[in-house]
Amino acid sequence: MMAEFSGKSIVVFCPRFFDYDVRIKDKLLEMGADVQLFDERPSNQAIIKAIIRLRVLPLMRPLVTHYYTRVIKSLSGRKADHLLIINPECVTPGILRNLRTALGAPITTVYMWDSLRNKPAARELIPEADAFFTFDAADSASDDRLRYLALFSAFSGSDERKQIPVDISFFGTLHSDRYAVCKAVQKRAEQIGLTTRFFFYAPSRIYFFLRWVFDAGFRRVNFNDLSFAPLPLSEIEKEMRASKAVLDIQHPGQVGLTMRTIEALDVGCKLITTNPEVSKHAFFRPSNVLIIDRYRPELDEGFFLAPYEPLPIETVDRYSIANWLRAILAIEKARDGVDT
């Protein structure tokens, strides 16, 4: 790969999430950039993640302030070409302005891989950035300051699919009605003789307990079905390559294509999804993608019998992590008063 970012200094703030932050950094390094990666959150302790996810952020202000004061001090005097903020939950407009000042007014980009309905505070960063991207087409349609850009696959690129021992697999974080939908799909799969492999990740026991108290849907979750340790991205890739189809259940409050959707495209396995938005994309093929009703999921036996329809390589490459980075970093300063 060409060192197309050679000589560019890029500072990235991204939450630690299934190794995606590290894959982003590694790809930027591979593309020639000088990269400094920071966690967007001040801590990944269970109680801190629970507070963030339950949106009681005022409790976090002293910790956030202390964390970013230290980070900004460490960056002071460093000249950066780009500042990339991914899925911000803790960065405030004031923090972002201080980061820009410390880094010599770099080109600043924000990317949301969650809906603004789920992260409403991130809207305050829109006027502070040179570009604000979202994976959610509904969000971009609601505000012309938001640019739509689908997510990416950060998988290794191997095309090995020698065995397909599982018919339907699911790997994801426990939220909303995901558990209920998975169990309904599993029941239907068993009725028609299909095998399943489901992995439910809960960020912490504290988070799960609080959701169990306040959300009746979580009281139906079998505690033994949960893992409080995330599955490494390399293991998810391995499991997906050993699956005939991957189940995707997007959050009810968003229409953006999930990471799992793009990863299924990358590994060449079929996709079962609750998100009808997928039918609007160039890679959609009825033989490869089955759209189900999350409230009354049905499985089509013929879908599993039909062979996977290979896609043009340029269609798949469109969603590579390298192309994603090219898109979000190919911007110029646009705000008044910022030197270029």
Give your account of this protein's structure.
With 340 residues, the chain is α/β, with parallel strands linked by helices. The chain folds into two domains: 9-152 and 320-329, Rossmann fold (3-Layer(aba) Sandwich), CATH 3.40.50; 166-317, Rossmann fold, CATH 3.40.50. The chain has helices spanning 20-30, 46-53, 61-75, 93-102, 137-142, 178-191, 205-214, 233-241, 259-267, 301-305, 313-317, 321-329, and strands at residues 9-14, 34-39, 82-86, 107-112, 131-134, 146-148, 166-173, 196-201, 226-227, 243-248, 270-273, 289-291. A six-stranded parallel beta sheet has the order 2-1-3-4-5-6. Strands 9-8-7-10-11-12 form a six-stranded parallel beta sheet, with helices on both faces. It is globular.
